[in-house]
Each structure stands twice: as structure tokens, then as C-alpha cells.
Specification:
By secondary structure, this protein is mainly α. The chain is built from 4 helices and 4 strands; from the N terminus they run αααββαββ.
């Protein structure tokens, strides 16, 4: 600064500090620094997206696997439950289970047309009864008598 005499006067400390603050930037930005920050941003986004995909795949795979296992266990339970119910009906109709292995009969039971077939008496239609497509009769034979399927020992 120049004073009245034309001589240069020393600047106040406040004036120097203001000038220095204007010159000094708290966040210096050169081209290289800006490119580094941009690369860091893209890298962070890419890693985050890949991490989210990985976590999603891991969790979805586990859920799908547990759903399949649950459904198969439920189907197995329903098959056994229906087979036991069929055996109860067979007994009620006068069937004889004394010499038969119940575990084997339940294990041999299968599904035909959405219905569990354990013995010949579970067939609802004559063609199914005479053909015995599930082979539930074993050594016996299924025949159609009086609008129901019966077992005949050979």
C-alpha cells in the first residue's frame, strides 16, 4: 500500500491474512486430482454394485434351495399321510392287512392323477384298475367288480 508521502507502507496483518486466504484454497484441484477423485468414485460404485449382485445371488440361491427342499419334504409327508389314510379306508372296507408289510405298502404308494394310490381299491376308474399302471398290487392282480377295484390273489 502506498501512504500519503508516496512511500510504500507495510500492510496490516489482517490485510495479509485476507490476501493469503484468497490465494490458498482449502481443496486444491488440479486436473490430476480431479481425475483421481473421479476414478475413485467410479471404482467405489462398481465395487458396490458387484457386491450387491453377489450378496443377492448368495441369498437368492439359499432361499431357492431351501424352498425346493421344503416342498419336497411336504410332498413326501402328504404322500405318506394319504397312503396311511388309504390303508385306513382299505381296512374299513374289510381288507386284510395281517400278512402285509405296511411300511412297504406306504413306500410303494404313488400318485396317479393327483390321487395317492396305495392299494388296488384306490383306483377310481376301470381302465386304471385293470392295467394297474403303478403296480401296487405286487404279486396279486387288480380287477374291476361292482364299480370298484378289488385285489385277487393269484
Amino acid at each position: 500500500m502506498i501512504n500519503k508521502n508516496g512511500k510504500e507502507k507495510k500492510a496490516n496483518r489482517k490485510e495479509i491474512n485476507r490476501k493469503e486466504v484468497n490465494k490458498i484454497s482449502l481443496f486444491p484441484r488440479g486436473k490430476k486430482a480431479m481425475m483421481d477423485d473421479l476414478f475413485d468414485l467410479f471404482y467405489t460404485l462398481a465395487v458396490s454394485i458387484l457386491l450387491l449382485f453377489f450378496i443377492n445371488a448368495a441369498l437368492s440361491g439359499g432361499i431357492d434351495q431351501s424352498n425346493k427342499k421344503s416342498v419336497s419334504k411336504l410332498e413326501e409327508f402328504k404322500l405318506v399321510s394319504s397312503a396311511v389314510a388309504n390303508l385306513k379306508v382299505y381296512l374299513y372296507e374289510g381288507g386284510d392287512l395281517k400278512d402285509k408289510d405296511l411300511d412297504q405298502m406306504v413306500a410303494r404308494s404313488k400318485i396317479l392323477g393327483g390321487r395317492t394310490i396305495t392299494t388296488c381299491s384306490d383306483y377310481l376308474y376301470e381302465p386304471d384298475c385293470t392295467a394297474d399302471p403303478l403296480k401296487v398290487s405286487g404279486d396279486s392282480r387288480c380287477i374291476w367288480l361292482d364299480d370298484s377295484c378289488k385285489v385277487i390273489n393269484i
